[in-house]
Amino acid sequence: MPYLLNFFYVLLLLVASPWLLVSAVRKGKYREGYAAKLLGLAPRRCSDKKCLWLHAVSVGEVNLLAPLLREIQQRQPDWQCVISTTTMTGMALARKKYAGKTVFYCPLDFSWATAAAMRRIHPNVLVLAELELWPNLIGAARRYGARVAVVNGRLGDSSFRGYRRIRPLVARVMRQIDLVAAQDAVGAERFRALGARSECVQVTGSMKYDGAQTDRDHPATRRLAELAGFEPDDVVFLAGSTQEPEEAVALDVFRRLSRQWPRLRLVLVPRHPDRFDAVARLLEESGMPWQRRTELDTGLPPARAADSPPGRILLVDVVGELGAWWGTAQIAYVGGSMGSRGGQNMIEPAGYGAAVSFGPNTWNFRDIVTALLARQAAVVVADADQLAQFVRRCLEEPDYAAALGNRAREQVFEQLGATDRTVRLLAELASEEGGREVARREAA
């Protein structure tokens, strides 16, 4: 089985190599980490401490680990946690966010690479954030005596349909997983339907609620507000985790309303760094005053149109700050929801008590969206006209916006605790040492 997978992966790499090369040249992707990815040359761990290898694919999953790592540090300070990621943006954020911890690129799912990485890390538990079913990686963990856990597990409609088509292969992998900490009962049943052992599946809730900051006076948020020059009577409309054409939609809304409400400020935070320049061109062509986040630290003056007030539009062109920027916003639009992405995390603006809106395509966050809408704590907007109506009402009726935000914040507070439940389950798993040394000797 591993050799067939290796053959398939090699073919896939050959087919994708022209696209990978173009992405490396044009967008700067896939330019580093080759030794770790292809050969499994992860940092060699020499400690005898109990070790959790936490794998987070990219930025969203890296952020997800924050409450989990805090809880582990508090409850199990003698554990060692190492972190792997797949993308360059995920790596940059992990190195910044978890400075002092071992951070490395996860090996590609070749049998030789995953085995080499396991020998170097020799973890007690391999922890996969949300869902990363890599057969060779999971198989290598089991051969080297490590337990395998999926935390904050979720299976959206499209993922479930796709995995169900290859259920015999997926079931073989699922049976090797010792713990699935699912976000909700629907996800738990889907994991079982794909072959996960029933006794290994637990419903813990979503750790994304625990990771939400709720204090607008948090130092990071306060610093960014001061850096941007926000005044107490400014109303910040933030469109975050956006994809094309959502920045243009938000800019159109701002253009319609900004003359009537001169204290309205617009903050745009694109989801992917490779779109920063494209959004900058969009803002430049608009003729409206705007500035890059990276210019704020340098003290450079904002780009201006003639006879226009300075600095009313800000493009956040850095990675990893969105969570703190949400705390500056009174009105929020959560991106990735008017296109094909399936939505982005709307818990963060909800936690700050912003008036939250998002588009109609939010299947990746179905349960969170359902809960917010049932509580009348968020609004769905289908296009620029509906978003403009929503922002206008928030400006005209501050009490409406405040009530919407308060209900959203209450929803977040009531869902806290998933991280604590998850760490308890991981502690039980890490204590199960049976067969670990035997498996390690057999694999050596």
Task: Please describe what this structure looks like.
- The protein is of the alpha/beta class.
- It folds into two domains: 26-206 and 418-431, 3-Deoxy-D-manno-octulosonic-acid transferase, N-terminal domain (Rossmann fold), CATH 3.40.50.11720; 219-414, Rossmann fold, CATH 3.40.50.2000.
- It has 21 helices and 14 strands.
- The chain has a seven-stranded parallel sheet, sandwiched between helices. The protein has a seven-stranded parallel sheet with strand order 10-11-9-8-12-13-14.
- Strand 1, helix 3 and strand 2 form a beta-alpha-beta unit.
- Helix 3 crosses helix 20 (418-430), helix 12 packs across helix 18 and helix 18 (384-396) packs across helix 19 (398-414).
- The protein starts with a helix and ends with a helix.
Describe, in short, the structure shown.
With 444 residues, the chain is of the alpha/beta class. Helix content is 48%, strand content 14%.
| CATH fold-level label of the largest domain | Rossmann fold
Give the termini separation: 20 Å
**Spatial order of the strands forming the largest sheet:** 3-2-1-4-5-6-7
Report the total helices. Answer: 21
Q: Architecture of the largest domain, CATH level 2? A: 3-Layer(aba) Sandwich
The proportion of strand residues reads 5-15%
- Return the structural class: alpha/beta
**What do the pLDDT scores average to?**
90
Number of strands: 14
The largest pleated sheet is described as: 7 strands, parallel
The radius of gyration is 23 Å
CATH-wise, what's the superfamily of the largest domain? Answer: Glycogen Phosphorylase B
Global shape = globular
- Weakly predicted, low-confidence segments: 303-310, 434-444
**Percentage of helical residues?**
40-55%
| Overall CATH class of the largest domain | Alpha Beta
The overall number of domains is 2
